[in-house]
Design brief:
Length: 230
C-alpha cells in the first residue's frame, strides 16, 4: 500500500513562533506524513514594534501571548485578527495545506483560498457543548477583561457558564487554582480552560490542588479532533 502523500501543516500563533508549549502535544498525535512548520503574527518584531502595532485599546477585546524571549504581551484582538489574515495568505502562497491557529479567540472573517483552516474556538466550543450537555460549566480565561467576550462565545452551551480568570502564564498555578476553586464553590460541575496557553500540566496542577471536577483543556480537545481527520 502506498503511503499518503506529505501534507504541510502550519501552526500559527498570535505571538512569536515556535510555541512548542502549545503545539507539541498536538503534533505528537499527527500522522507521520504530516510535515509541520511554525509561524507567528509577531515574528521579527521586538517589543517596541509589538507595542507600536498591536497595543490593546481601552474598551476593545484583548488577547495575551508570549514573545520569543518568554515575556508576556497583551494585544489588541482586532489588530491581531487583521494580521492573521495576512499570515494565512503567506502560508498558502508557500504551499501549506492545513493552517492551525494556536488561539481560542474568535476571529470572524478569516478565510483561505485552498488550505484547510482550523480555528480552535469553533472546534473547542462545539466539542465542549456536546460533552457538557445540561452540565453547569465553569470557564476559565486568562484575563478578567476577556470574560465579556467569553460570555458571547459560550452561549452555545445549554446552561450559561460561570466565569473566572487565571492566567496560564503566571509564575505559579495559584491564580488558576484560585479561579477553579471559585467556580466550584459557585456550583460548577466541570471546568473548561479556554486558552491554548493552558496545558495538561495545568490540569494536573488542579488535580494536585484537590480539584476533582472534570477539566477540559483547549489544546487537548483540539489535538484529539485534529488527529482524527488528518
Amino acid at each position: 500500500m502506498l503511503a499518503p502523500p506529505p501534507r504541510q501543516l502550519a501552526f500559527l500563533t498570535i505571538g512569536q513562533a515556535p510555541r512548542h508549549d502549545l503545539s507539541d502535544a498536538i503534533e505528537q498525535g499527527l500522522p507521520a506524513h504530516i510535515e509541520v512548520r511554525h509561524a507567528g503574527v509577531l515574528d521579527g518584531l521586538d517589543r517596541i514594534g509589538v507595542e507600536a502595532n498591536f497595543a490593546p485599546t481601552t474598551g476593545r477585546a484583548q488577547l495575551i501571548s508570549r514573545l520569543a524571549d518568554g515575556s508576556i504581551v497583551t494585544l489588541c484582538a482586532d489588530a491581531i485578527g487583521r494580521e492573521l489574515q495576512h499570515c494565512i495568505d503567506r502560508l498558502e502562497d508557500d504551499g501549506v495545506d492545513v493552517v492551525v491557529l494556536l488561539c481560542t479567540g474568535e476571529f470572524p472573517g478569516l478565510r483561505t483560498r485552498r488550505a484547510w483552516l482550523v480555528e480552535p474556538d469553533a472546534v473547542v466550543c462545539g466539542t465542549v457543548a456536546s460533552l457538557l450537555r445540561d452540565v453547569q460549566a465553569g470557564v476559565i480565561v486568562p484575563m478578567p477583561g476577556q470574560e465579556h467576550e467569553a460570555r458571547d462565545k459560550w452561549r452555545i452551551l445549554d446552561k450559561q457558564p460561570l466565569f473566572a480568570a487565571g492566567s496560564p502564564y503566571a509564575s505559579t498555578a495559584q491564580p488558576l487554582v484560585d479561579a477553579a476553586k471559585t467556580l466550584q464553590a459557585q456550583g460548577a460541575h466541570a471546568l473548561v480552560l479556554d486558552c491554548m496557553g493552558y496545558s495538561p500540566q495545568h490540569k494536573q496542577a488542579l488535580r494536585d490542588a484537590g480539584c476533582n471536577l472534570p477539566v477540559l483543556v483547549s489544546g487537548s480537545v483540539l489535538g484529539g479532533a485534529l488527529g482524527a481527520f488528518l
